[in-house]
Give the backbone structure.
Amino acid sequence: MESRETPPTYFRLSKFTRGFQNLVDAYGVANYREINPAPYAIITFPFLFAVMFGDFGHGLLMTLFSGWMVLNEKPLIAKKSNSEIWNIFFGGRYIILLMGFFSMYTGFIYNDFFSKSLNIFGSQWSARNYELFYLLKQREVMLDPKDMYAGNPYPIGIDPIWQIAENKIQFLNAYKMKVSIIIGVLHMVFGVSISYWNHKFFQQRINIICEFIPQIVFMIFLFFYLCILIFHKWTSYWANGGVEAGPHCAPSVLILFINMVLFKTTEQVGDCEPYMYGGQKDFQRFLVVIALMCVPWLMFGKPYLIYKHRQLAHSKMNNIAEGINNEGDHTHLQMADSGIPLSEHENEEFSEIMIHQGIHTIEYVLGCVSNTASYLRLWALSLAHAQLSEVLWGMVMCIGLGQTSWYGGIILYFIFAAWATLTIGILVMMEGLSAFLHTLRLHW
């Protein structure tokens, strides 16, 4: 029996994928034969969580707990617990397992192990230009990267020297903020790219031409270009780069991007070049103009083609009524084969189509800006988690480690118990729940 109703959606699930599918279905269920985003969320969800929860020790605790649930899932299922909280944890055991694995990875990249760094490969910084007597007298020593940096980056992750540096927060602020923007833009570009495969599968060429292309061009010409500027700044300015390529002449990426959008000229400061490369000013204006042209393209392109199609269809009906065959038939057939989703809009008023497309355009354009800023929560929560872990170590654990008397071991025993309890209760459970909710927001 033929029907124009959309069939129900069914996905084959396993015990591993069911939890991720539930997260996706909480926002909305994909239409019949559309791409299911759950398989991609198996990677992106725990990774974004781990960016905010990056600590090798905390990730290890989460992995051990979830691994215990996975290895003992049959006897745990047989117990049929009535505890709602336990059933939620047990139902998401594979999600927690992957979040723990990814947190261990990002903790290794951040070089954080319960707020401490591991000097596995040896620091690339040294104070070899200072005398030992001078170092013993000074509380702080400035390490000039021109002379005291080996020139080779730390093999994996962040150099452990930053753990004891006074400007650690400033360094990690700049690093994690830029990484958050890059990850966010790549995530959004990937999400827009998935829509192309849906349009292609359903043979909706008008959606590819009037929605996907202006959306991806707008995103790449503005925000992906911002990521390119970040990488360009990282690779083009260094301590021994001379006057123009030195760190003091590195332009602010934020100021460049704001001036780019507002069509302003970046002013020169001293002998430093205001731009990163030749012709950057004109090239950036070209990108902004093309991106702005995508807005009316996205808003009026699809309604215009639907309007023209209805005119041709109406003309054809008049010609059939009059018994006239002319070139309009051939033109209509070409428009009918152009991929316009007739079944989607055939009974919809043209004013409703314009309102719907206008809302879609405004939502996308504003969403590009607000969602890019929203990904900065990756930086904020990561920094907050690291600082809270460091404060807990300094205000609790250091008290026990600082004992020098004979009963210091007894005091350390109780101090460690308090530190472990606070670590599990606050840093792993409460901070983990907070990072989980923020990750869910970024995916929705």
